[in-house]
## 1
Amino acid sequence: MVDIFDGFYAGKRVLVTGHTGFKGSWLSIWLHEMGAEVIGVGLDPYSEKDNYVLSGIGKRIKADLRADIRDGEKMKAIFDEFRPEIVFHLAAQPLVRLSYDFPVETYQTNVMGTVNVMEAIRATDSVRVGVMITTDKCYDNKEQLRGYKEDDPFGGYDPYSSSKGACEIAIQSWRRSFFNPSEFGKKHHVSLSSVRAGNVIGGGDWAKDRIIPDCIRALEADRPVEIRSPRSVRPWEHVLEPLGGYLLLAQKMWEHPTEYCEGWNFGPEQDSVLTVWDVASAIVKSYGRGELRDVSDPDALHEAQLLMLDIGKVKSRLGWRPRLKAADSVDLTVDWYKRYKTCDVMSLCLEEIENYLRK
Ligand SMILES: NC(=O)c1ccc[n+]([C@@H]2O[C@H](COP(=O)([O-])OP(=O)(O)OC[C@H]3O[C@@H](n4cnc5c(N)ncnc54)[C@H](O)[C@@H]3O)[C@@H](O)[C@H]2O)c1
């Protein structure tokens, strides 16, 4: 496989929380393919059709662990045993609507889970880089027409978004208090950053109330796709885009520990900022059949209408930019869902990564 990181990850011990989930499974596959020793920490996968299950990545990585990030002592014990050098923290309760039903659990997992992972990093002298994954929803959403910049205020209306805003504040605090760049090499040797992606799409995500899984479930069952929030605008991007950004950032943090330990937006270009209806239409077109039905409900739970990320900083300081146009991201996503039943899913993922890297 093309290695755009020049062998950097070969032999590195990399701990990924949330490796059984959608983004974590893709990250683990990519890291494993580059020769990293991947230690995965997560709960059981949600379904037999998840990318983690179908790809079989759990059987290939160095350690495939089931543990709850709400258990701080357990996190420390895992870190102590496996002594990771790089940590990608993705584990979370990531769904807005579910957070209205389970606000306490969402906060426990997202906020205290993140604190527990940072405390495990602090207690383990092998860790040099920590990349904490939050979300574009961590910003105080003013429904504004410009993209959020990294130094915009954190906030969040619903429990999920606000829990991620709270994570950002906790990460900032741990960086100031325990991993301060001015004390690097004297009091600690950790570089800690946070990263915010847009609405991530790609193969193997079957989460409830997310537009792509909703579309595919309906298309597979020959039902119309019901669209709850057709006019909501989101920054859509294929899963490999932010993951490539996280991997690049971690490498830069390793090489220059005090220069990149801050917050970063890994969103798409402006042409991929589209309504839910536009994206669902593109999915149906790429799939080759199906129809959409507007089922907007004026009494629905609050979800942000307009959300965009400003990616000027990652472009100028990291040299990162999205490789895919919106239509390419949709086609790559649909490719997985059209083929997962009939082919070897690990080969499918590796082929998609290879094609992506050649763009
Ligand atoms: N998918 C998106 O559109 C998107 C966009 C922006 C940010 N994010 C963030 O990216 C990360 C990954 O999202 P995803 O879409 O892959 O979610 P996902 O639901 O597919 O995966 C979540 C992972 O977290 C693990 N997990 C959940 N609760 C846990 C707990 N208490 N202890 C241990 N592990 C636990 C699950 O087992 C799973 O492996 C999350 O932090 C999410 O907030 C996702």
## 2
Amino acid sequence: MKTDQGTILKELILIATVLLLAVSGCTRFEAYANDADPFLFYSVRLKDHSLNVVEVKGRIFGSGSHRVGLRPLSSCDGGMLEPIGFGAIGPDGDSLPVKWIDDIYVVETKGSDFTYSYDVVLTVEDRYSPEIRSMLTFLDRDRCRLLGKDIFLLPELSLAEGIIIDFDLFPEGELQTPWSTNGTRTLLPSLDDLPLMMTVSGDYRLIEEQIGGIAVRLAIAGEWSFSDREFFNVIKRIVSEEIALFGSAPHDQYLFVCDRNPIKGGNKFEYYGAHFTAGMILLLDPHIDRSDLFGSKMAIVAHEFFHSWNGGAIRSDGEDMLWFIEGVTVYFSYQVLLDAKIITRTQYGRRYESVRKRYFDNPYLGTVTIGSSGNSDLADKDMVNLLYDGGFLAAEALDNELREITSGRVGLIDVLRLLYETGSTLDEPTLVEAIEELCHRDLSAFISTMIHTPSPEILVEPPPVS
Ligand SMILES: [Zn+2]
């Protein structure tokens, strides 16, 4: 599909004007032309399906800056975007000089609007590598999943709100993103949302319903032993339960994408989940049985959706609070399954015992603390298990302690709700403060010992009999 530059400009002007009107109530267009932040427009086209190549085009309007940096998004665990054939052109179609400085493409724009383009190969070379977490982008014969940071360069500019992205991928099947989407076009609220923007296109089946005042969609691909509706009903129960725990959800629409786990065999995990702002990817074991819809495997749904609050709305800088983000989420994911009557108390008990056993059998137990265990290297299953299992037990111990010191008045969920409502960045002192506010007790030593000592005493004691 060819796009007409004139039409795009008109649309951009219209949108920019509408945004300004919305902000100021009344304005003249000149105000935008002189003062407003620059505007970004992206388009993504499937260029060569057999070679897994997409073409990405960005257009920046109204920057006025003579040099604009475009940064590939990367993470310390690999998976950095490698654009092919990067080039930039000015408004007259003339090539603009580009320099490669400190891993950033710097375009000499002469202060004018400009267009840049590059190709990206959507192939994850080694699905067994730790990059699996950051490279969930995937292209198949009939469908694709794209994650913003795997395809987009990030302009080093302060941009106007609202980024338009046009996708020309699979003509069959609607484009799905967690954001406002109309046909092949999606509107992202801001540049911050670009790295974790998830898009699926092609042969996905769709179910959508309003749950607790928010729109929840499931885009599912492949054949399963259960029907799409049966799976969606499980999602529905979990979503309702979790919204009820917090009283509200951070976003007004959510997208679950369910696909087959491409990683198989040996020491690998049977299924993976990932959470991206208001989007969640559930890569399930292709051999999952229909009866598993009422089993602890559904913790993947509860876990990823719980990250909408813990890890999403409740954010932490760096890796220090990973034990809390992951451990507390694991802990509540099973509680939610129990409360939503997806698992029975017996199933919960069995799950709890297996987590406990795996924790005490972990080879890192005596040398690595829960606070320093990590999940960046998914190839190291024992390290990942120490984080999740240890985090689970630490969350449980903290929940029990809170209930004990307040005679059942305050639980860990109350602490989470307070953190969610106050919106402060999560670190150990913030957690201690939130507890102090609710319980009038200082649990800093309790938390510190549990998290920063290998094989902490507190987790060795037998669980309280309930
Ligand atoms: Zn998680």
